[in-house]
Amino acid sequence: MFVTLKVIAIANHKGGVGKTTTAVNLAACLAEKGCEVLVVDLDPQGNATSHLGFNPNSFDITINEVLLDPMNKVDINSAILEHDTHGLYLIPANLAMSRADLTMSALIEKDHRLRKSIKKLRKNYDFILVDCPPSLATLSINAFFAADDVLIVVQTQPMALDAVSMIDETLFEIYSSRPDFPIVPYGLPTMHDKLTTVSSTVLDAINHKFHPNTLSPVHANVKLKEASGYGKHILEYDPVCPGATDYRRVAKEIIKIQENEKKEGRKYIIRNS
Hints:
It is built from eleven helices and seven strands. By secondary structure, the chain is of the alpha/beta class. The chain has one domain (6-264): P-loop containing nucleotide triphosphate hydrolases (Rossmann fold, 3-Layer(aba) Sandwich), CATH 3.40.50.300.
């Protein structure tokens, strides 16, 4: 669909904000629109893997083996799984990655291993969505160095923006080391309840924080939680529910950004922390 690959790291070091839900359902909605999408599960809990209906413990090769191989002989292409949904692929993760941050500290260029592995992909994908772990340690840093954009998932709940400042600091350090190709950060409000004053107030704050790079909010929807529990993305579980509508809207916005960049080039928005 697109000539240029877009790598998006989906991040927040605070858990339970809808990060994996976003990675899986956004990927499904992009695939529905004709894109070739690869989800990279970088969380040792393997939630994206199980959310897409796979057993995280049933694989001999996961992203763990790819990143931690000191001789760089494990082929990233051998770790890719094809989902039943046309155009949707996954590189799984499991608890074997729980010590990855510690193990990778001894490897050469430990922060660039994912970026270099992605360059070895044989298939041409339109998007790679990296589901980051809820931390800002080595695995997340790998995702940020590999990414074109970082999609920061933020609940429309009190104090949700407090966690964003730490991500800002981390991204600033990465900007400093790759000024020729800075990451573009976007904000995605999640679990929004438009009927509550506090949720609307936080949404306004998120819009202000990320302006003009705030995507449309994903509203609180029980179907999204149910889909995860059944190992299905939302288009498999309930394609007409509000949650599916929200993620289709976000996918449309992501594609529009990619189309605009193809015509006009990348635009870098420098945000104040």
